[in-house]
Amino acid sequence: MSTTGTYVHGYSEREFERLRDQADSVRSLLHHDTRYPPGSRVLEPGCGVGAQTITLAKNSPAARFVCVDISAESLEQAKAFAAREGLSNVEFHQADIFALPFEEESFDHVFLCYVLEHLREPVRALAALGNVLKPGGSLTAIEGDHGSCYFHPESEESLRAWNCLIEVQARLGGNSLIGRQLFPLLNEAGFREVTVSPRMVYGDQGRPDVMEGFVRKTIIPMVEGVREQALELGLMERPAWEKGIRDLHAVADRANGTFCYTFFKGVGVKS
Fold it and tell me: Which of 81, 181, 206, 239 could cysteine-pair with 50, CB 3.0–4.6 Å?
């Protein structure tokens, strides 16, 4: 993945499961306004295991989705997932965002989710996607922003563990704070009529689905996934790391635990 960056979370079966859990937990929040007209041809670059693909295809059954990813293993998962869901309006291709095997101006819309944060050159990627988009077509990008995360109760160790995720991704050439940058990135890539809307996830014990599906099954495994890198880099000592993870679990367990995180959804139009 040298031309595009490094996927900080890896390609384990647990990561595939985490991606699907994450998609399930924030589906309505992110996708309630994602619809494409009948007959549209939509490109989904960086589709991964198809966690977002399923929702896209079901929300717009008369549109055609062309989904690409650089990982063959992820694509096999995505194909199997789509087959289980009985989808007939999706096709998959292995490709690099910077070397797409499609003609210029061949898509009506582009949708990408949690992709730019892993790329060393996000503006270049957006420009490449603009090349295959028809004039007047839209590009939608959804990204999180790890700097928007806060929780209660917090401890020094839980905050440090969370910040390890940010630091490890940065050292791999990614940017987990990219959500706040969507507006300037889309403008710099040449899109017009750019709009960005924040989508905040909030959980407490009155919202057990959020605490279980988003915090326990999505956020904590994401932090746990950089354990070895964080320890090898000396960002934390093992006892402090283990306490930090326990303290994050306590946020989901305790009656007074709360958790907040913001995604950003940007939309731009090609001139």
Answer: 81
